[in-house]
Amino acid sequence: ETGVTQSPTHLIKTRGQQVTLRCSSQSGHNTVSWYQQALGQGPQFIFQYYREEENGRGNFPPRFSGLQFPNYSSELNVNALELDDSALYLCASSLGAGPTNEKLFFGSGTQLSVL
Amino acid sequence: QQQVKQSPQSLIVQKGGISIINCAYENTAFDYFPWYQQFPGKGPALLIAIRPDVSEKKEGRFTISFNKSAKQFSLHIMDSQPGDSATYFCAARHGTNDYKLSFGAGTTVTVRA
User: Fold this and answer.
1) Which of B32, B100, B104 shows the shortest C-beta gap to A48?
2) Please, which residues bridge with residue B19 across strands?
3) Mind listing the pLDDT tens digit for each residue in B62-78?
């Protein structure tokens, strides 16, 4: 086990609703990254937070937003849900940012289904 | 747009055999190449990683071969065991300000006893 915990494990929403996913990073880690993994695909980078600031963003629309708290836990918020948002959402924690940020430790993810 | 292309999509190997998974990339700004192993219902776990200035790295039964000029790298699983049955992802890190990982599409490995 990595020590990265995500909640909830499963979630069902309807199109147009909003959702908040939560992640507790591994002890001592100050960087959290979020990835979306569609069925049968590799994870896609959404964004990264380092010391409560967004520190990089992938090709996702603004309705995907996030927060990092002083204890380095994090939230991923998705507004106006679309059917294509159905996926496994993975949180990864790590130490530091930049070139030393190599070892990502993933949680087990939140499986989001949008109906 | 897949920045890291991975093949095959799936493979079956007998216990004790060798599993080989290949990946290719185009972006020369990539500076770190990890492999992740994912079991059903779990998140990916870092297996082994290599930097582009090294041609080979071995950890136990797992070996990465890296060909910088061809922009290709591969994972070899020696003496494959049923417990190795999982999905394997290659990835590449962007050596720029965001240092994000781009993942391949994954290879499902099944080891038959």
Assistant:
1) B100
2) B77
3) 999 999 999 999 999 99
Instruction: Give per-residue pLDDT as tens, A28-83.
Output: 899 999 999 999 999 999 999 999 999 889 999 999 999 999 999 999 999 999 99
3-state helix, strand, coil in chain A (%, to 5): 5, 50, 45
CB A31 within 8 A of CB A94: yes
CA dist., res. B28 & res. B66, Å (int): 13
Other CB atoms within a 10 A radius of the CB of residue B29 amount to: 10
Q: Check: CB of residue A47 under 8 Å from CB of residue A66.
A: yes
**A106–B105 CB contact, under 8 Å:** no
Q: Roughly how many angstroms between the first and final C-alpha of chain B, as a whole number?
A: 37
Rounded to a whole number of angstroms, the distance from the CA of B105 to the nearest CA of chain A is 4
Chain A residue numbers with beta carbons less than 8 Å from the beta carbon of B99 are 48, 56, 97-99, 101
